[in-house]
């Protein structure tokens, strides 16, 4: 039968999540409500990011507003938007943001059962030149609602309920896992809705790309150096891998997820724990990778097994295609 030129039955992200939650008879829609508030934050940031270049050129909203206040920096603005959206959802309890030194404990009157760790606008070095940036988030359930502590967000990554990111790139894409595979949704700006465009994403078992800041090579440890050497000068007759590095974790991980390969931010002599933050960078991306059939490793263990002790803790990370990460694990095991 003929395919309609105009599709009228679109799977929006809200519809998708509602369907998922409805499979659990105890679901009362809390997660769907939480997620719709996160989605609102992403749309707000997408719109601000889209206008950012213009605002500079023609002073779209004015360099200073009517009260004479300076325009907020995009990362500060994004943080405010997400904190307010999450608190007002009435479904959150503890929030951790890359932008805030301390965790936010939601007013008891507005509390719900979820904890959200997020980086409101990651890839700061790419903001001013208009290159892809993104929001990353991970969601946990509180352990005991009568005794809410920092321990609720200092849980190993494997305890996460859901994770995702939104990439503000050539299109705005939200990638989400609620622990049942990975799905990608693209914002249709004319509808203001995220539409399911990438159902059930699976990362290729082996990839042809590696992604790393090679400028740090002189300080790398043995296994990292050896792995990158093998990418460039393979000894097994396979062709060398291509190097792609944007310096925006969301964009680099998104490409890795779709095309395969490996993304690494390893330890080095100057930063023995690497650069990326466990709660809102390493964990959510590791969760998505595993859900897509890939792996994520810290150089010592499965990334999702790590138990953080501080909210802004960092960890080295190697994530991506199953076979590529397996190779890195072998190199670390040989060294040990
Ligand atoms: P940020 O939180 O200051 O934006 O830093 C995190 C970013 C990641 O998006 C990216 O993977 C990494 O830093 C790039 O770091 P580098 O510039 O050292 O290669
Ligand atoms: Mg960041």
Walk me through the topology:
Blueprint: H1 13-22, H2 30-58, H3 74-88, E1 92-97, E2 104-105, E3 114-122, E4 133-141, E5 162-168, E6 172-177, E7 183-188, E8 193-198, E9 209-211, H4 222-232, E10 242-243, H5 249-259, E11 262-265, H6 278-291, E12 295-297, E13 317-320, H7 322-335
Parallel strand pairs: 1-3, 9-10, 9-11
Antiparallel strand pairs: 1-2, 3-4, 4-5, 5-6, 6-7, 7-8, 11-13, 12-13
Task: Write up what this structure looks like.
- By secondary structure, this protein is of the alpha+beta class.
- The chain is 31% helix and 20% strand.
- The protein contains seven helices and 13 strands.
- The strands form two sheets. Strands 2-1-3-4-5-6-7-8 form an eight-stranded mixed β-sheet, with helices on both faces. Strands 10-9-11-13-12 form a five-stranded mixed β-sheet, sandwiched between helices.
- Helix 1 packs antiparallel against helix 2 and helix 2 runs antiparallel to helix 3.
- Magnesium ion (MG) binds at residues 98, 119, 122, 281.
- Its main location: cytoplasm.
- One of its GO terms (molecular function) is metal ion binding.
